[in-house]
Design a protein that fits this description.
two-stranded antiparallel sheet; 10% strand; binds heme C
């Protein structure tokens, strides 16, 4: 069987949220029963294809070919190079800029080195556990083996969500799946294939040892088969903050894992000749349930919308963000807010004189919101970001003027409402500001 998998992404809007559906399209060609003269040569499956202007003939031998070819193409470099490039990408994105992408100080306030070390330990520790299981007698029974691996993956998903930033936590599960898949090729499937090829070259019948290696390789291949779709999901998940930045992102991932793996199960059964549509009903029902569970909350109107103390940081954190450009007019505008006899403002002014002084209040709602944006977002989202580690506006999104907000309003609502932005809340957006910004952006 030859197969290609490619995702089709379609996005639509529901309320103020962007929803994206990913259809994994599987193009596969089944091997057919060969004509008699091929069967006589020991060929059990036959496939003809046309590609790139040429005809291709693929034959699968039931056992060994009549004669071993001089050069044999081993399907291993595809797996190895995928892992190597993935590891390089992960290092560049998540390790070289750990404060922005890997660490969420509200979960665990790691140092960069601490976070990277934890991440490596988490990844290779998980792989080590897998390798111990697959080599043990637990790895011999496909049902016990896959159930155990599923439970461990749920725990890993929860664990990575506690340790790393939301976005990084999804990628860690993807990295575990990818590492297990490549490890399966390197430590299990290749040795079994080598043993078989050696046997054939020596003209011997495969013995017990080879059979055992083959059984382990079979279970490893089974894992790789079921991991394919969940892995693709984690790879593209980075584009969908509404999935990973969900309050219970780890559970979303588990849900998607079950949905994609059961869909896969249906196709596996189908190719064995068992058509069991119930295996498609399960993922369909689960997808609907997931959408209902994840539906966006209605956006509340902004509390005390006019420029008031809600713009003030509610905490006296040791590293307050850079003060806004309107600091000059502070005295005027604080006076304004007070004479407006807005009780919110008065409360907060009473709270603490020091905080009150830092309150960047302004005359209009637009200005107040722009103050928030300038202090909390524009450090990164500017033509020339001032945030360390950012040379250009991330994702090409510049947020400096009310016009900019309007252009990106849909994305802003999602990114801010889910807590995805500001990244790692580096600029310490307060809850009140978050609510206001969401309401403001959605009203634009
Ligand atoms: C520490 C730097 C930083 C800060 C501060 C920051 N962002 Fe971002 N923002 C990023 C990066 C990096 C990306 C690209 C992330 C990605 O590719 O998934 C991004 C992406 C976005 C996106 C696009 C998300 C998508 O759906 O693709 C939006 C919208 C956004 N930011 C809005 C904001 C808003 C609003 C604020 C302020 C409340 C903010 N950001 C603060 C770094 C930052």
């Amino acid at each position: 069987m030859v197969e290609f998998i490619f995702p089709l992404v379609s996005c639509y809007r529901w309320g103020s949220m962007d929803w994206c559906i990913v259809l994994f399209c599987v193009a596969r060609s089944k091997l057919r029963k060969p004509p008699q003269w091929k069967t006589d040569k020991g060929i059990s499956g036959d496939l003809w294809a046309v590609h790139g202007g040429g005809f291709y003939e693929i034959a699968k031998y039931k056992l060994e070919p009549e004669e071993m070819p001089k050069t044999l193409h081993w399907f291993k470099w595809e797996a190895y190079t995928t892992w190597l490039t993935g590891a390089a990408m992960m290092s560049i994105v998540y390790y070289a800029n750990a404060t922005a992408y890997l660490i969420d100080p509200s979960k665990v306030p790691f140092t960069s080195i601490g976070a990277i070390a934890t991440s490596l330990l988490f990844l290779f520790g998980s792989y080590f556990i897998y390798e111990v299981i697959v080599r043990s007698h637990l790895g011999k029974n496909a049902f016990i083996f896959s159930t155990l691996i599923f439970i461990l993956l749920v725990i890993a998903s929860w664990g990575s969500y506690q340790l790393f930033s939301d976005r990084a936590s999804f990628i860690h599960i993807g990295a575990i799946l990818g590492t297990v898949m490549v490890g399966n090729v390197f430590f299990g499937i290749m040795p079994a294939q080598r043993a078989l090829v050696d046997c054939v070259r020596r003209g011997e019948k495969p013995g017990k040892e080879v059979a055992e290696l083959a059984l382990q390789a079979k279970n490893r291949s089974l894992m790789n088969n079921y991991f394919t779709l969940p892995l693709i999901f984690t790879m593209i998940s980075n584009h969908y903050p509404m999935m990973y930045a969900h309050e219970k992102g780890w559970l979303v991932l588990v849900f998607v894992g079950i949905i994609t793996a059961t869909a896969r199960h249906y196709f596996n059964q189908k190719h064995l000749g068992h058509k069991k549509p119930r295996y498609l009903v399960i993922p369909a029902v689960l997808t609907v349930l997931l959408i209902i569970w994840m539906r966006p909350e209605p956006i509340e109107p902004a509390p005390a919308m006019p420029a008031t103390a809600s713009v003030a940081p509610t905490t006296t954190d040791s590293t307050p963000p850079a003060t806004s450009a309107t600091t000059d007019s502070n005295t005027d505008t604080v006076a304004n807010a007070n004479t407006n006899s807005n009780s919110n403002a008065t409360n907060s002014v009473n709270n603490d004189a020091a905080i009150a002084e830092a309150v960047p209040v302004s005359a209009s709602a637009d200005d107040a919101m722009m103050d928030v944006v300038h202090t909390r977002c524009s450090t990164c989202h500017a033509v020339q970001p001032t945030q360390q580690g950012f040379a250009a506006p991330p994702a090409g999104i510049i947020l400096q003027t009310p016009e900019d907000l309007k252009i990106h309003k849909a994305k802003i609502v999602t990114a801010v409402q889910t807590g995805y932005m500001p990244l790692g809340n580096i600029t310490q957006l307060t809850d009140a500001e978050r609510q206001q910004l969401v309401a403001y952006a959605s009203s634009l």
